[in-house]
Amino acid sequence: MSRRLDGGDQGAEASAWPAPERGLSGELALAVYASETGTHLVRAPAGARYAAHVRVFDGGAYEQRLAAAGLRFVGRVAAAFPPMLRSIHDPPPGLFVRGSADAELLSRPAVAVVGARACSGYGAAVARRLARDLAAAGLVVVSGLARGIDAEAHRGVLDAGGTTVAVLGCGIDRDYPAAHRELAGRIAETGLIVSEYAPGVEPAPWRFPARNRIVAGLCAATVVVEARERSGALITADLALEEGREVFAVPGEITSSLSAGTNDLLKLGASPLTSAADVLSCFGIEAKPDVARVEGTAAKLLELLRESPASADELVRRAGLDAGEVARALVELELAGLAAAADGVYRAGK
Amino acid sequence: MLARAVTHALVGLEPRRVEVEAHIQDGVPAFAIVGLADKALNEARERVRSGIASAELEFPRRRVTVNLAPAELRKEGSGFDLPIALAVLAASRQVPRDELERHASVGELALDGRLRAVGGVLAVAEGARRMGLERLLCPSESAAEAALAGVQPIPVRHLADAVAYLRGELEPDPVLPVNGGAPVFVPDLADVRGQERARRALELAAVGGHNLLLGGPPGTGKTMLARRLPGILPPLEPEAALEVTRVHSVAGLLPPEHPLVEIAPFRAPHHSASTAAIVGGGPGLRPGEASLAHRGVLLLDELAEFARPSLEALRQPLEDGFVSIARAAGRVVFPARFQLVATMNLCPCGARGDPAAECTCSAQRLARYRDKLSRALLDRFDLVVAMPRPRAVELAAGPSEASEAVRGRVVAARERLALAAPRRTADADALLSRAVERLPLSGRGRARVARVAQTVAALADADEVLPEHVAEALAYRVPQELS
Hints:
The complex is a heterodimer.
Chain A: H1 2-8, H2 10-15, H3 24-37, H4 48-56, H5 59-68, E1 71-75, H6 83-86, E2 94-98, E3 110-114, H7 121-136, E4 140-143, H8 149-159, E5 164-167, H9 181-190, E6 192-195, H10 207-218, E7 221-224, H11 232-242, E8 246-249, H12 260-268, E9 271-272, H13 276-282, H14 296-307, E10 310-311, H15 312-319, H16 323-335, E11 339-342, E12 345-348
Helix pairs in contact in A: 7-8, 7-13, 10-11, 14-16, 15-16
Chain B: E1 2-11, E2 14-25, E3 30-34, H1 39-42, H2 44-54, E4 63-69, H3 81-91, H4 97-101, E5 103-105, E6 108-109, E7 115-116, H5 121-130, E8 135-139, H6 143-147, E9 152-156, H7 159-166, H8 196-208, E10 212-215, H9 222-226, H10 238-250, E11 266-267, H11 275-279, E12 280-281, E13 286-287, H12 289-292, E14 297-300, H13 308-313, H14 315-320, E15 322-327, E16 330-335, E17 339-344, H15 363-371, H16 375-378, E18 383-386, H17 392-395, H18 403-419, E19 423-424, H19 426-438, H20 443-459, E20 464-465, H21 467-474
Helix pairs in contact in B: 2-3, 8-18, 18-20, 19-21, 20-21
């Protein structure tokens, strides 16, 4: 506890680092050293090996090569380095950044939306809808570009035309998993992709928890959408709690193992999340009522979907319409962002 | 003494004229076949020898050489037995030579001299007609098939009949023109309960010839529905029927009584099938399942279980409508304009889309399963329907519409599409553009949606493609979780 109080005081923290590594090239040297040796370093290590690295490392040339590859480095002492992240107990020496947005984006009010990679249709629909609403309210949504919930969160933001930040657990030049290359490209168009790892670093299992501390560190609040027991998303939640950030969990069915982790979080005292308004209120933003309105068949189906999720065929029967009409109305709801489909089951958004 | 008979070898479906020359000279009795003959053809020596003896004719006790010209063309199969036997008999003056040269011939000999049917008679007959030969000696089972090519078939049951006919001692049996295809039992849509969306997609697929992918947990009727697609397709046009019959003839699949394939073929290879079995090829350069499904339906049940190379090999026929197989000796082209229908589970354990079960697949396992289907292959499905498991109440619903009623609508809509394809209104265009922005939809995906919208409009008997038609078409796009 005392450690966090110390860390919260930025003046004291800044002076905790020895002078020689201060300044941009010192942090870049440290970040590259940590990446290349695969070590988790907060400050410059003592010892000949690092000293030798600093002697031969040409920061200027390295930065030129970064720039040529469309990459940037934001050191820990730089003004653009997000203060929220600087204040965690083991901040990275700096962040490698890719994308067209200004690095200042990282300092804006942000929410982490994380969860299981093998998610259910429910989790995917909730993540997407939530991210869309948060982005529409002007918040930055941060996640880890992983499969499942992470990707849905990023997509939800892009749906709403918002900005999102993806934190990688591998070198900044890699898109991992490779299946998300296209998604990463779309994120970088308006948002940012960041990593503490220099180009060329392979993804490794132990790097993902380290990545999660950056996800949690960038955000004032973390939402866990779906997580099994012992899920990586719970690590993110723990890290957020340690830093005194707000943690939300999305309640799930008690019989679903995919919601075991989130339900445990709720038992431990995390705030239950039932709509984006829960998160927005802790940022002091008032949730705007949904502006999208639909009429006729679509409105009728939306009402049915609000009662319970249903397949298209169930709707055909319950609404007494033919399959073509139902298909048409469901697409209308999807385009209006009022419903989403996963594995053939449609769910209403909030 | 030299005599000549004419037949045709097949390169793919293409008949090539082959002259069977028999030469008899003095010397030690011997029988040799030259001219790039394969194993089955070389064994013709024994069949021809026995066949001639069984027909109570005389096999020359001198040196017999049979040459198959042109020599550089590879010849395969047993269809050369009859021309070889006749050429030998003509060379030994047991059959009039000039009469033989006016006929083409094809057929395999049994040891007792009877004739057995061989594959590809239709193509051989077409080759004969092109060479200006009007009559084809062929096994009596294949006579109806040969008649489809417009030549006069001379049905032969026994080698002795062929000899008697060529000597002018026997009138050939008349061959009745074929009418009416074989009665085929096609399962009916009335057997499927519920699944309204999938039924609707099936109907759209039948109208527009769209490729259809059905996804869902096991036991929801994916395969059952897919097997009912041929039953709602209209019968083949005469030209198409002949194309299909040609391919099926080469594969030896035609029933002798009703050789003309008049209904859309349906092929469902098992997922363990090799690439050669699916797209064709192999040592004998045979047409594959994709070609056998030409102008019909190719069902790939459990799509993700097929070997990836087999699936990727299907991309060419899906795009071009033919399979081209290159060999050192040359290139063979088989037609393969089929409609692809595929089914798959939504995950390896099969629980996805089933409210009563929980999926236990890990993220990697799920990703690996879905990665088996390349983006490029998925993009070729115009209609994708996820079929979640229906609840018991849905299965208790009343009887469903029968295939015949659906087929009526399909035929009417197809006629409408053939007459003039409906065009999109400006509003429909605007909706499509909005959808491309909001939904993950590739450029190819957009084009597919536009085509399906046209089909929806035709089925609704509309003059133009309206926004509502585009909206319905969008419901059948490749869903996020598969892309």
